[in-house]
Design a protein that fits this description.
Chains A, B, C, D: It comes from Nocardioides simplex. Four copies of one chain form a homotetramer. By secondary structure, chain A is mostly helical. Chain A contains nine helices and no strands. Chain A folds into two domains: 40 residues, Homeodomain-like (Arc Repressor Mutant, subunit A), CATH 1.10.10.60; 136 residues, Tetracycline Repressor, domain 2, CATH 1.10.357. The longest helix of chain A is centred in the first third of the chain and has 27 residues. Chain A is elongated. Chain B binds a DNA duplex through helix 2 and helix 3.
DNA sequence: TATGAATGAGAATTCATTCAT
DNA sequence: TATGAATGAATTCTCATTCAT
């Protein structure tokens, strides 16, 4: 079963989503196609586990970084969280490419939404607790804006690797973006 | 050929990407499947044109709004541009949903990148010309950040329709985000 | 399409129901498996047509014989109708074997029920018109009994070919059975 | 092994022939699929035993009734035997439905033939002994006719439950059919 | 230019059977 | 004796593409 998931991830990374057929996954796992169905009800279930695992891992890393820094608001926290997100996304850029660009998004939707919600709630709670340190009226909305903006910037940077923007510069810009916004 | 593209768009909107088969598109266009290949080398080409047209239209609208306001920098310009983008995305929410969530993203990639580049360059030029009015060191990077953030926020808002964020509130937040960032 | 039905009939007769696979039928028809689906929605539809045709043919023959003789009730009519039924069943004993014994009955059910109903109604009408010539109280019931008994006897005789019963003897017994019953 | 046969009968009745897979039977029997093959050479063997048992039981009941009445020929004997057959078939209508309509008949063939033979021989013997009480020339043929007709009528009545024919009426008709035939 | 029947490789899935433990 | 994971051939059905008319 672990072998199957690993094989699925492998097929996705090596051959792309279009080649993600049960036969290919089975072959890659070194088992027969029939055996797949002893562990998974159908093809989609395999894909789901692969995707779930991926976002789960990313979420774990980011949540860890965020929790650690929850005490001291400010540029440091934003930077570290963004850094953690970047690292998590950089860890398996190939899989990110497939998951984020090759798969129909609705496959990742739920998992990604969960990741966003998790971080957003943390952020909203924090912002609500420090109302005085931001000029944004609604913490929930502010959290929604910040999380979406940072997430997308991070993903596009990892995926597109824009030559003009170094990793450090990106982090600087993110800090400026979030800082400026919350204090605007 | 116009009929084919229209039929393709129709199939996409009515039946979704999974039903986007050459036979169905041909039927919807009122021609035979063989005739498709007189105008398009393969299925992907039809899809590409449909997608291209979509983003082209969005780009047109946004660029128009941006050009109009290029003279007076400031909250007004950001707001109006974002407003134009929102309107453009709202115009065909169903197609947006299919294009942005159902299709593998890499199909839209190039066209969307073109749209972003276009707006980004406009923005970068503008920022470069008004170096004194921003604290961000690199206009190109700043434009990249601003465009990506606003685009993603707009798309997610149109797609997810978060109950807690009204259209006006969204525009306010965008203005705050961009304003705060550029002046941070 | 005619070729497909013929091929289906052929496969059924030559190889039996278990071998009635879409690929085999396609091969037997000298076409590719995909072409099957241009004419039939699924495998069952092909089988249905083969079965329908078979019972239709049998029904036609029997109804013809029955109509011809409807004027003169009596041993002659029964004998001729039974004869026609026997001939119809003997015409393609191999297919009868498959249709009646190899296929799950519920596949033939409707068609066979139609055949029975057709003959039964003819018989019931006739019996009702000649109430005085039978001692059975209910024409509908009598028709049900007669038709089922004769049909089954005929089918089993054709299928089992009991050595002890010649064709003529069978017809004699049928006449005696029906005659004795209606006058009992 | 008893458990397997019982489970097989259960699967047949609850889920139908299509669901009669080795895995399901094994599960229903509370054993593993592999263990099936310790008691039966293959899937067909299990089915055979289930079917055999069924017809065996029916045969037992009918033979018992027939033996009991063998002394006094006449309407009473026919009626009681037919009654016994009806009761036997009514006892497990669900299984009858599966065995007679869902299964390919040739699976039941041998066992059913045995049942028929058994009753037929009893009847033939009896008829031979009372030559004077029938006008039919050949006892064997007469027995064949009578047994097939009554059996089929009974089965169809139980299976189709024709509203117009009550149980008692059916028995009356059978008596009339057999009586009229033998004396015709 | 247009047709549309024909193609055929390839997809997901099932299930009777085996065999190492 | 019992297990149950593993097998893998076989099944039904789809669909992008072709090509003779």
């Amino acid at each position: 079963m672990e072998r199957i998931v690993a094989a699925g991830r492998g097929v996705l990374v090596e051959h792309g989503y279009d080649a993600f057929s049960t036969n290919r996954v089975a072959t890659a796992a070194g088992i027969s196609p029939g055996s797949l169905y002893q562990y998974f009800p159908d093809k989609a279930a395999i894909l789901d586990v692969v995707i779930d695992r991926y976002w789960e891992e990313v979420a774990e890393r980011v949540a860890a970084a965020l929790s650690e820094r929850i005490a001291d608001f400010g540029p440091g926290m934003v930077r570290d969280t963004a850094d953690a997100l970047l690292s998590a996304l950089e860890a398996d850029r190939e899989l990110l490419r497939v998951v984020a660009e090759e798969l129909p998004i609705h496959r990742s939707r739920e998992r990604r939404a969960a990741l966003e919600r998790r971080v957003r709630e943390l952020a909203a709670t924090y912002l609500a607790a420090r109302r005085e340190s931001t000029r944004r009226p609604d913490p929930a909305t502010a959290a929604w804006v910040v999380v979406l903006a940072v997430e997308n910037l991070a993903m596009r940077w990892v995926l597109d690797q824009p030559a003009a923007v170094t990793r450090d510069a990106l982090l600087d810009e993110m800090v400026a973006l979030v800082g400026g916004y919350l204090l605007a």
